[in-house]
Amino acid sequence: MISLGSLFGQKSPPLVGLDISTSGVRLVELSDSGKGELRLERHAAEPLPRGAVVDGNIENIEAVSDAVRRVVQKSGTRIKHVALGMPPAAVITKKIILPAGLPEDQLEVQVESEASQYIPFALDEVSLDFDVIGPVANSVEDMEVMLAAARREKVEDRVAIAEAAGLTATVMDIESYAARAALQRLLDNDKGPKDRIVALFQIGANATHVSVLQNGETVYEREQPFGGVQLTQDIVRAYGLSFEDAETRKKSGDLPDNYRADLLAPWLENAALEVTRAIQFFYTSTPYTRIDQIVLAGGSTQLPGLPDIIAGRTRIATSVVAPFFGMQLGPAVREQQLRTDAPGYLVACGLALRRFG
C-alpha cells in the first residue's frame, strides 16, 4: 500500500503544496488564521528547462530538484513536509463495492484483490491507496470504496525530488483532485446556485484538462492536447528567440507590434475553438445539456482577451480562477504580483489545502 499518506483525505501535519508541472514548479503555504479563515503565507514559482518534465514524467530529476530547492529558498518557508501531485493520466482510479463493516486488515486484502482486476501491472510495481466513500444507496450491507494506483517508479521520482531539496513527501494527491478541491472552496463560499454546472478548464503548457462539477461532484473529465506551448513555439519561429526567452516575453508582452494580431489573436481563436469543442463533446457524451459557468486556470489565462473570446464563442459566463480569494494575505505576499500569477497556482493551492483535511 502507498506509504506517503492518503491520496484522499486525512488531516496532515503543517505542509506546503508543491506543484511540479511541465513548465515549472509552484509552492504555496497556507495557515489557519482563526475563525475558519485561511491565510496565504507564501507562494513562489520557478521555471523548468524544456524537457525536464514531459507528459507528467520526470525526465531530468537533477533539474527539477534544483528548481524545487530554488522555489523553497525564494518562498522563505520553513515547513519541510510537502503535498505533491501526480498527473491524472499517471493514476488509475476506480470505485468498487465491498461489504460494509470490514476490519481494516480485511479491507486492505479485499481492496488488493479487487485492484488486481483493474490495474494492468503487477501489484508489487504500484503504489496503491483507497478511501471509503460511504454506504451504497439502498444497500446498508455494502459500501463504496475509491481505489487509486500509480506506478511506483513515478511516485518514487517525486519523493526523490522532494528529498533532494531537503523536504519530506507526506501526501501524494492527484493534480485534478487538488485543483477541484481549490475550486470547490470558492464555489462553497460564493452566493451562486448550488445546483449549477461548472466547467473547469486548466490550460497547461501542452494539454488542457477539463473537469465538470455539480454539487461538489465531478460528473465529467477529459484531457485534450492543446496548451500555451503552441503560442511560445510560434513566437520562437516568428522572432528567432530561444524557447526560454520566448516564454518570458510571452508573459510580459514585450514583443513586436505585430505580435497581437499575427500570433496572439489566432492562438486565442484556437483556444476558444478547443473549449467549444470540449463543451459539445460533453453534451453529446453525457445526459447533460447545459453548462452554467466556465472557470479558466493555468498560466496561459494571463494572456489578454482569453476569457472574453471564450465567453463570446460559447455564450457561457467565463472567468479566470482566483484560488486565494477570501483568504487573508501574509506579510510576505505581494498582492499586485499575486493578482497576475494566481491562476497558475490552482493545483498548488489545492495541495496546500490538504493540511486541513
Automatic annotation (TrEMBL):
Gene3D superfamilies: 3.30.1490.300, 3.30.420.40. NCBIfam families: pilM (TIGR01175). It comes from the Bacteria. PANTHER family: CELL DIVISION PROTEIN FTSA-RELATED (PTHR32432), ETHANOLAMINE UTILIZATION PROTEIN EUTJ (PTHR32432:SF3). Pfam families: PilM_2 (PF11104). It comes from Telluria mixta. InterPro entries: ATPase_NBD, FtsA/MreB, Heat_shock_70_CS, PilM, SHS2_FtsA. Residues 15-183 form the SHS2 domain. Belongs to the heat shock protein 70 family. This is Pilus assembly protein PilM.
